[in-house]
């Protein structure tokens, strides 16, 4: 069934059943990849990057290959965009060559402008505000590891950044309870929090925005963190480390306060010794590699659902 939204810019535009459908298709593709090997034959994805990437770039490129399609890697600065060509002109021109665009941008407002003019679907591959594709892979991982989603509790500890904003949306849509513990001044976007509360009214999820990591991880099935210094925020590095450490580090002590059988999640790349210790990242509780792998399966399912 096609998704109800043309673009994926924040995750809020997908309905809960769209998200659950992407997860189901991803599970089916993971079980039997061969069955889908020609499903995007003749289709092309343009991938525009204004910031570095390992997982997003490789998983999208491989996803298109595995579905029988083709992907183009385009650095923002190598396009005329880098020399000031209008976003609206680029969007309309690329729409004449390819079938779908994925872009990783410094500013969400640029992506919104791109989507406004694009005749073809646009996928957010991370911006300063959101990282929806990450959360599709994360929900797939939680579903695999725990067997279900509704009623689970996820605790997010650290910076209320792009990943945290999209987790608020994804969890609240599908009924995963989410407790966020951020340092003062680093809370998630007010849009993300408001949408999460609104989604929760429908799904029955519980949403909490706190400052205390020990309170947030109580009874959590998943403890999730991300870097304290996201791409584009490097100038604030020293201040951020002072504001987050040691209280917001996920270490064995904090993990021991979570629920029984809790798993550790991180979108990666991690800064070992900052937001998470080696011990936790490399522990048996850590599912970060499953998470990274699931970017591939969930994005195959997303592309398939958008384009067929
Ligand atoms: N998690 C994630 O998006 O990783 P990359 O920055 O390597 O794409
Ligand atoms: N919050 C991080 C996520 C990287 C995948 C960043 O934006 O750099």
Summary tags:
5-stranded parallel sheet; 308 residues; 4-stranded parallel sheet; alpha/beta; Rossmann fold; 14% strand
Describe the structure in your own words.
The chain is an alpha/beta fold and 308 residues long. It has 12 helices and 9 strands. Strands 7-6-5-8-9 form a 5-stranded parallel beta sheet. A 4-stranded parallel beta sheet has the order 2-1-3-4, sandwiched between helices. The longest helix has 20 residues, at 288-307. It binds phosphoric acid mono(formamide)ester and norvaline. The site of phosphoric acid mono(formamide)ester (CP) has 9 residues, from helix 2.
First CA to last CA: what distance? 8 Å
H and E string: HEHEHEHEHEHEHEHEHHEHH
- The CATH architecture of the largest domain can be given as 3-Layer(aba) Sandwich
Strand content: 5-15%
**Strand order, biggest sheet?**
7-6-5-8-9
What's the arrangement of secondary structure elements?
Elements: H1 16-31, E1 44-49, H2 55-66, E2 70-75, H3 87-94, E3 100-104, H4 108-117, E4 122-124, H5 132-146, E5 153-158, H6 162-174, E6 177-182, H7 190-203, E7 207-210, H8 213-217, E8 222-225, H9 237-244, H10 252-256, E9 263-266, H11 278-281, H12 288-307
Parallel strand pairs: 1-2, 1-3, 3-4, 5-6, 5-8, 6-7, 8-9
């Amino acid at each position: 069934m096609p998704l109800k939204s043309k673009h994926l810019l924040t995750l809020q535009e997908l309905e809960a059943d769209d998200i659950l459908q992407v997860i189901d298709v991803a599970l089916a593709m993971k079980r039997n990849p061969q069955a889908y090997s020609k499903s995007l034959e003749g289709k092309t994805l343009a991938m525009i990057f204004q910031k570095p990437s390992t997982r997003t770039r490789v998983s999208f490129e491989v996803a298109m290959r595995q579905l029988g399609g083709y992907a183009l890697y385009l650095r923002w600065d190598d396009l005329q965009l880098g020399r000031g060509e209008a976003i609206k002109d680029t969007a309309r021109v690329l729409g004449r060559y390819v079938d779908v665009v994925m872009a990783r941008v410094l500013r969400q407002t640029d992506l919104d402008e791109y989507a406004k003019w694009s005749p073809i679907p646009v996928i957010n591959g991370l911006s300063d505000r959101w990282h929806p594709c990450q959360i599709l892979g994360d929900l797939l991982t939680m579903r695999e590891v725990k067997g279900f989603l509704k009623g689970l509790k996820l605790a997010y500890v650290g910076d209320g950044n792009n990943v945290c904003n999209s987790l608020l949306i994804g969890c609240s849509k599908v009924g995963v309870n989410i407790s966020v513990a951020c340092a003062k001044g680093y809370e998630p976007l007010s849009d993300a929090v408001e949408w999460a509360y609104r989604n929760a009214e429908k799904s029955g999820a519980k949403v909490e925005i706190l400052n205390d990591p020990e309170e947030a991880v109580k009874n959590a099935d998943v403890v999730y963190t991300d870097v304290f210094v996201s791409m584009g925020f490097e100038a604030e590095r020293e201040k951020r480390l002072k504001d987050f450490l040691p209280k917001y580090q996920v270490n064995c002590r904090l993990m021991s306060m979570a629920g029984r059988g809790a798993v550790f999640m991180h979108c990666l790349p991690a800064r070992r010794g900052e937001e998470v210790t080696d011990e936790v990242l490399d522990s048996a509780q850590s599912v970060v590699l499953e998470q990274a792998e699931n970017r591939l399966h969930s994005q195959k399912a997303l592309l398939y659902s958008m384009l067929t």
